[in-house]
């Protein structure tokens, strides 16, 4: 790979972020060292960050500047470098991470993606990414085509999940902080319970020990008003049904959102229902 550092990426925002799962944010003085990249390889009609992912808000910086941002976040107390929607910038990110590590970057690297990426990209991250954090959106390709414009989401995401699991194994937490491993997310969509059930089945069949984070933060934004069934808030009843299904399947560890900003950890996920 070329050592040219003049290539650029586009960044919408970076800073210490406290909205991730607890072991990715730590205490109030720590936080995830989050970098929101502009652009995305999916065009979800309900994207909550569509100004960044689809409208391209952000500023350009070169590879050395990106590495300096990572080092600055670490210096300010961030417990990891949380790369949000990094996929289209993977080449530049590899160079920046390698350069930053040479300059003293030592906190875990988090690959915070939509789960739909070329397998070759994930393979190229071996040894550089410590924590994979994919949001597995779909278990039904008809739904992925309808809402995100891709007809092979499940096949692609499953292949990536297998490679991620192979590289980093199960999520490991030391003194309350995630050090490495795989943590999967799923955003529950209104009136799409079957899709959520299929996502859970896909992840469970891969490995029931995988940590899963169920998100209830859906809100109708972007182009959701073109789709009446998702142009509404997610109900508490719908979300509880997804959590209960997760429990019945037998997942062992995970989180669910009590509110849009609060994530509750469930050790021995298959033994304790949060909705009792």
Question: Can you describe what's shown?
Answer:
By secondary structure, the protein is α/β, with parallel strands linked by helices. The chain has one domain: TIM Barrel. It contains nine helices and eleven strands. It has helices at residues 22-25, 50-53, 63-75, 90-102, 119-124, 141-148, 153-168, 193-206, 236-249; strands at residues 8-17, 32-37, 59-62, 81-84, 109-113, 131-134, 172-174, 177-187, 211-215, 254-257, 263-266. Strands 1, 2, 3, 4, 5, 6, 7, 8, 9, 10 and 11 form an eleven-stranded mixed sheet that branches. Helix 3 (63-75) crosses helix 4 (90-102).
- Order of helical and strand elements: EHEHEHEHEHEHHEEHEHEE
What is the CATH class name?
Alpha Beta
Q: Total number of β-strand segments?
A: 11
What would you call the shape? globular
Q: Tell me the number of helical segments per DSSP (H or I, 4 or more residues long).
A: 9
| Percentage of residues in helical conformation | 25-40%
Core attributes:
276 residues, eleven-stranded mixed beta sheet, globular, alpha/beta, TIM Barrel, single chain
Short description:
This protein is an alpha/beta fold and about 280 residues long. It has helices spanning about 20-25, 50-55, 65-75, 90-100, 120-125, 140-150, 155-170, 195-205, 235-250, and strands at about 10-15, 30-35, 60, 80-85, 110-115, 130-135, 170-175, 175-185, 210-215, 255, 265.
